[in-house]
Design goal:
Helices cover 58% and strands 0% of the residues. It is built from five helices and no strands. The termini are far apart.
Amino acid sequence: MVEHLKDDLALQLFALKQRLIRDLDRKPIGGLAAHLDCSVDWSRESVLPSQAGELLDRSQFANTITGRCQPLHRHDPMLATRF
């Protein structure tokens, strides 16, 4: 599972939302949050799971609107310029 988590941002967000992990790859997740205008308070661990859920929902909604119904991957060329 660790290998899959490394590059799959949606899987990282889901795992944090479900409290299966305690932390995630902050740089690309922070870039995604900034791109989607969604704040993430890294200093409050107690709210990170709910924030991860909100960010996951927003990213999936954005993918649906743009017609990109593919996994959100940190090496995605469409996202690379935003991180």
